[in-house]
Amino acid sequence: MATAGYEEVEHTADWALRVWGPDASQLFRQAAFGMLALMGAEPADKADGWRAIELAADDLETLLVDWLQDLLFALETRQRVPDRIEIQVDEAGRLDGRVRERPSRRPDKPIKAVTYHQLAIRPTPDGLATTVVFDV
To answer: Fewer CB within 10 Å, N side or C side of the chain?
Structure first.
């Protein structure tokens, strides 16, 4: 198995994504790209520039939901989707970095929200893994 990645998993009513990475930063990056792939959110050819992101939460699960919700908000309100993500996530619940955004059309399959349903970031022999459920 690759050291970082994502795959869609079966879920009865909503969408679910299994995500893994060697550390929290890679896990968060993979979750973002996996969510955007599920939606069919395609960036345009020309980049708009970089947007700084700073988030903090009491735990990594809340931080992951906040991070993905931030990306959904940018897509919904400004029709922007990241094509490059440079972030650092620490165990204390801080995310710092930037995303390079590009214009995007509305996604083929919109996601309403990122849920906390059975969300738990767990250590694995290769790093960290979780399953994220999306309300559609």
So the answer is: N
Alpha helices for the chain (secondary structure H): 24-39, 60-78
Integer Cα distance of 111 and 119 in angstroms: 17
Query: Could you tell me the strand order of the sheet in which 49-56 lies?
Result: 49-56, 94-103, 80-90
- Tell me how far CA of residue 117 lies from CA of 11, 22, 24, 83, 114, in angstroms: 11, 23, 19, 27, 9
* Domain around 109: 5-135
Is 63 strand, coil or helix? helix
Domain count of the fold of the chain: 1
Read off the pLDDT of residues 39-80 as tens digits, 9 standing for 90 and up. 998 887 787 789 999 999 999 999 999 999 999 999 999 999
Q: Whose CA is closest to 20, among 3, 36, 32?
A: 3
